[in-house]
Design brief:
Layout lengths: L15 H19 L8 H4 L1 H17 L4
Helix pairs in contact: 1-3
Length: about 70
């Protein structure tokens, strides 16, 4: 298999703060399915899919951008 040189993205490990924020968003969205969480006055329960996608997008940005 041939190797590519000079193309592609440089991937980095996300910082601990970025990973923790992403984990908190995804867990809040997942736990709002089972439990009533008064986080954000019901915002998480009303927008749980968007909150979960935002958590995964934050993690993806943390892997792609070295400053996150």
């Amino acid at each position: 298999m041939a190797q590519r040189r000079g193309t592609g993205f440089a991937l980095n490990a996300p910082r601990l703060v970025t990973f923790a924020a992403s984990l908190a968003l995804v867990l809040a969205a997942a736990l709002s399915l089972r439990f009533h969480l008064p986080v954000g006055h019901g915002f998480v329960a009303g927008h749980r899919f968007s909150v979960a996608v935002a958590g995964y997008a934050l993690l993806a940005l943390g892997v792609l951008l070295p400053m996150l």
